[in-house]
Amino acid sequence: MTQPLKALALVCSLKPSPAPSSSALIAQQLLDELAGHGATGELVRVVDHDVKPGVEGDMGDGDAWPEIRRKIAAADILLISTPTWVGHMSSVAQRVLERLDAELSETDDEGRPAMFGKVGVTAVVGNEDGAHKITADLFQALNDIGFTVPAQGGTYWNGEAMKGGDYNDLDETPDAVESTNATLARNAIHLANLLRERQYPAS
């Protein structure tokens, strides 16, 4: 029997649990969408773990990244969800990308980069501009590392310019975000199934 697809959401909020987090909210909404297509999901708020700075797979001295990396290796779909800070992804998201850099030197038994065959998707929230640039930066990094990005594989919410308010303060999810979330999940599942059935060629 075919195992269900697995999705892992890395929430890159600066706020540790149990503080409310817009990045966690949109990530959970996407995991729920993916679950509607039969995927299992797990959410990890990265700042809750002692992820050391560096570009190695294991930086030692209690580094929490190796366990997170094992979860990534077991997943078919990786979601990076980040807030927007001064127009950029959070420092936590940047650290995740720096730690994923170690995967460039990892290969499977047939010589393919270790992240080949996995789908990468993104979510960005914030009450300032920057979502498109952050999405582009995340897509490029994930693609470099070996993830495959589906059509419309990024979702985001920006609050009204020059005003406060957060995504998790909204009374309901805007229709445009809800529709984009649904499309992202549908396309991510479609692509992950295709890659499971037909992996990239061996080197």
From TrEMBL:
It comes from the Bacteria. GO terms for molecular function: oxidoreductase activity. Residues 6-152 form the NADPH-dependent FMN reductase-like domain. Pfam families: FMN_red. Gene3D superfamilies: 3.40.50.360. This is Conserved putative secreted protein. It comes from Amycolatopsis japonica.
